[in-house]
Amino acid sequence: MQQVPVIELTDVSKVYPLPSGDVIALDHMSIRIDSGEFVAIMGPSGSGKSTLLNQIGGLDVPTSGTLKITGKNIRKMSDIELTNLRLNAIGYIFQKFNLIPLLSAYENVEYPYILKHRCNDTTGRVSRLLADMGIDRKMAKHKPAELSGGQQQRVAVARALVNDPATLLCDEPTGNLDTKTGAQIMDMLADLHSKGRTIIVVTHDPSIGARAQRIIRIKDGKVEAA
Amino acid sequence: MIKDIILQLSIRSIRLNFLRSVLAAIGIVIGVVAIASMGMMGANMTMSVTQQLSAMANVLVVKADTGGGGGGFSFGGGTGQSSSTSTSKKSSSSTISTIDYITKSELDDLQHAAGKYGLVYPLYETSDKIVVGDNQGRATIYGMVDTDMGSVLTLDQGELPKSAGAVAIGPTLADRQGLALGSRITIGDETKNETVQKFRVVGILKEKGLSMDLNSDNAIIMTEKSYVGIVGGDEQYDQVNVIVSDIQNINATKDAITNQLNYKKSVVTIQDSSRMLSSITSTVGTLTTFVMAIAGISLLVAATSIFNVMMMSVTERIREIGILRSIGTQKGEVRRMFLYEAIILGLVGAGIGAVMSIILGWLVVLAMVGTTDYFFTYQSLIYVPVSMAIGIAICIVSGVYPAWRAANLDPIEALRAD
After folding, report:
1. What is the ipTM of this complex?
2. Which residues of B fall within a CB distance of 8 Å from A119?
3. Whole-angstrom Cα distance, residue A44 to residue A24?
4. CA A12, CA B333: separation in Å to the nearest integer?
5. Which residue among B3, B13, B412 sits closest to A102, beta carbon to beta carbon?
6. Class of CATH domain A7-225
7. pTM for the full model?
8. B340-380 pLDDT, tens per residue?
């Protein structure tokens, strides 16, 4: 049975025009990621990892080629459609956690829910997700600055999951955490994968890559090994 | 918890940068207070002047038409110019009379035409040198027919002059020259070969204020006989005043006079207070607009400070904007977040400004107009919501560009910022 891939890049290039000459960040790249996969994208810095992640995450649009996210060509999408894609279909987990400093941990998780449903969460989903991540009620009332890195990243994972996205995009999710906490986060991701979610992790850490089913190595904007 | 998460974020951002936001709002407060209190001052001044002038709206002043529009007429203190209401039907230079007084027969005609509408009384008027003790000065001198005095003048002390050698004086003149009942005034200028004559003060008039017909506060009033005795010009009246008993009949009276005297050529001009009223009102209006425009500059300053605060807010929160955008916040929502911030600053500033402008406006009106009788009227208080609206509008306008900038940041660039 031919499944629609979650992510499908066909001949994708991304060129940044600079006065000193064009920088080719992605060079005719083709990748296919199917639903339920746990993929690590690895490569040295400057290899195009971040650019690739931005394309997959709908934050940026390729210069040429076709990038389909759940079957839809993002080059044909308006800004509003792309934003809705980020809200509904993709959960982002960042290296620097990127929680909203003005909101409490609970509100940070609830925020995308409110954006999507236009109302507060009355289903208890937010509390449940936070509990799953090991954030208790008392902790959930704190602002991000009052939480440890590990706690912040757990809140970020809960936030990424709140609108039930098909894909989780993780950009060096353990990069700002100590080894032990990082391992806990990776356990969580592995657990989420076992429950059927597609996980894409960008990292340069081989031990993180080892947790994935498949490693896509890229270098100089090209796929080296898949 | 407030339902709108975007509004929630705006409120929290303001709270987080409380001092900065307060300082920006103070600018709006000052601007709103300045505009509102200046506007209220103008409105109160207009209403106060209108009230004073309409007290004499029932007076018509008839003068000989000497061409050139009849000239102005003088008030007790300053000079208020008012173009006369020429009722001439054939006003051309060839038909204009060269006589600059109203004759006895014209007075009779006036009496005939306007007598049924109210009191018609003639007046001699000049200005001459007066000497009181060692003091010299000038004063307006009116000559009046004895029978008119009783109905036109109101005494404060003493009696009305009946004989030659007796005068009544206005309260301002009495104060200025230190005159009391029984004091003596010498009228006339011997250096100009005029008849010099001593008069005795027998009456002091009640204060009358600004008036169209007779500015008695600063004048000397004597009998027709005495006047003609020193100035001359018997039965050559300088003006004839008509005090119309029912203000509804003002136009009918004017028409009657016009038909009676000006049917062939323009013999007399008729002045009423309406022109003067509109000219004063428009002068006050112009001044008010001008002062409000100056006050408006303070709102421009406020706009700059709001703009500055908003730009700082955007710059400081670039990373946050990046996060918001990357997890699915629409451009419009980011724009709304910053516009809310500007609107909140505007609402708070304008609200405080409104309260303060009522207090300060009241003080300004008390100081500048002298009365707060008209303060709590629609025309005056309307400036509070108007200036509030201007203040809020300026906040929104100042917030538009920062909000637009925030919404159009590239999320990737914004996320990278630190």
Report:
1. 0.92
2. 3
3. 16
4. 31
5. B13
6. alpha beta
7. 0.72
8. 999 999 999 999 999 999 999 999 999 988 888 889 999 89
